[in-house]
Design goal:
Blueprint: H1 9-28, H2 38-47, H3 53-68, H4 74-77, H5 98-110, H6 116-127, E1 146-149, H7 151-161, H8 169-172, E2 173-176, H9 180-192, E3 200-202, H10 211-219, E4 225-228, H11 234-246, E5 251-254
Parallel strand pairs: 1-2, 1-4, 2-3, 4-5
Length: 255
Amino acid sequence: MTAVTTLDGTTVASYYRAAVWALRRLDDVGVPPKRFDSAAEARWTQFQGNLTWSHRIDLLMRDASARFGPAFQAGTIFDLPGLAIDEPFGPSWPSLRPQQARELWNEAKKAPATEAEPLVALWAEILRVVSPGKAALTRPGPAEQLVAVGPTAAWKVFESFVGQTALDWSRGVHVFADTPAGRQFAGLLAVVDPAPGATRLVGPTGEDETGWLAELRTGTPRVDRIVGPTSPSASEMAALAVLREAFPAAKVESA
């Protein structure tokens, strides 16, 4: 059974801070609608009524989750029970206090334009993801299918996709992630060089510890390469063993 995440204030604030920076990235790379410019401010002022800064951020995250899924979807990130697949939050979601929301908004709005490498490093700092090693992976081929085990490995694989227009992160990679931070971090990577769709996640959910392999087989006809962290957790070690057995022809590399 996956560990139950306690939605304390620090956890929720980290989730939102990472997501608001992702919204800013979408603005910077031209994914509509604009969220931080003067026209967006005018629209919000006209629409706002009794809504707060917390509502504003939640509405924008809800909209962005339709394309980028686990970058923004609290339900997926925190494995919240009983939610429809397209429902990001659910009725019991705690959200942010309005003043907190405004502070996060202003932090992202007032910053210089985002750049890919520093932004990913900022997300890693917020979500406490360990950075990968310096050695580069061999560049994937356009039809190659990869599985990254854990957020550190996902980061390493993502580095090999940056600037490669022939590659599609949302179609060429699955990420095994079994923690909220790992799921959100992997989801956020689809936003950097915006992929056509969301990061494809697999991993244990609720009571189901092994169904992720069947889900992976449904999502890809084969696995050509498996990338794991240099120092895997116990669950990542177990996932690597399962993948090696299931896909014996796949090349295995370390991040």
